Amino acid sequence: MGLEVGLGLGALAAAGLGLAVGAGAYSARWPASQIYGRTLIAPRRPEEIALTFDDGPNPRWTPLLLDTLAEHGVKATFFLIGQYATRQPELVRRMYAAGHLIANHTWSHPDLAITGERQTREELARTNGELERILGAPVRFFRPPFGSRRPATLRIARELGLTPVMWNAMAYDWNTDSAELIESRSEKLIVRNSKRGKATNLLLHDGGHLTLEANRAATVAAAGLLAGRFGASRRFVTVDAW
């Protein structure tokens, strides 16, 4: 009897540990989770779409994306990797001059759910300092790489004057070379969010954290398709509008 009780308690403890681990992973990486702290996702404005691009600037594809967005009169939010931005200050200034919102995506794209507080602060502060030097203007928004964060991540960001931003739509544009597939995935999510009474905060990529010139031809083309499809029925905004 004692052995059975012991085994039962052990199973319960293991189950409890599993739930705790699962809850921690959810809190650290799921974009909608607010358990570790408040983040900006999307307001109750179903007519609005924010196109957000991570991991740039990309010297090959970001200029083409800027041309595409300009053709449709769309402003977007760009979460820039600091070490890429410092190598392309003129491109960063071009993005800002075109009316796009420039935001912080850390210096080297680490997983902030597992980095120490000192490194986290250095990643964010160094990137902000460099972007503000290039632009001559404040940078007030931040997105954690991979969406990974912990309570200290969000606390440090706010201490630096940064609003953490997540997303509620992701087109997985980095794993396909089909613009039509990216558009189709995005359209379904935009419609879903609208039915739920929410704006869409769409995560796309104009760069790649593993290489400076990641191929983003499909994303650039998809951005044009989305702008054309929703330009008459939705309003494209940058996240500072929220």
Mind explaining what this structure looks like?
Strands 1, 2, 3, 6, 7 and 8 form a six-stranded parallel β-sheet that branches. The protein has helices spanning 2-29, 62-72, 82-85, 89-97, 117-135, 151-159, 179-195, 217-230; strands at residues 48-56, 77-80, 101-104, 141-142, 163-164, 169-170, 200-205, 235-236. The relative contact order is 0.21. The chain is built from eight helices and eight strands. Strand 4, helix 6 and strand 5 form a beta-alpha-beta unit. The protein is α/β, with parallel strands linked by helices. The chain has a single domain (48-241), classed as Glycoside hydrolase/deacetylase (TIM Barrel, Alpha-Beta Barrel).
Helix/strand layout:
Blueprint (H helix, E strand, L loop, with lengths): L1 H28 L18 E9 L5 H11 L4 E4 L1 H4 L3 H9 L3 E4 L12 H19 L5 E2 L8 H9 L3 E2 L4 E2 L8 H17 L4 E6 L11 H14 L4 E2 L6
Parallel strand pairs: 1-2, 1-7, 1-8, 2-3, 4-5, 6-7
Helix pairs in contact: 2-8, 5-6, 7-8
Question: What's the quick description here?
Answer:
With 242 residues, the chain is α/β, with parallel strands linked by helices. The protein has one domain: Alpha-Beta Barrel (TIM Barrel), CATH 3.20.20.
Q: Keyphrases for this structure?
A:
TIM Barrel; alpha/beta; two-stranded parallel ribbon; 46% helix; 242 residues
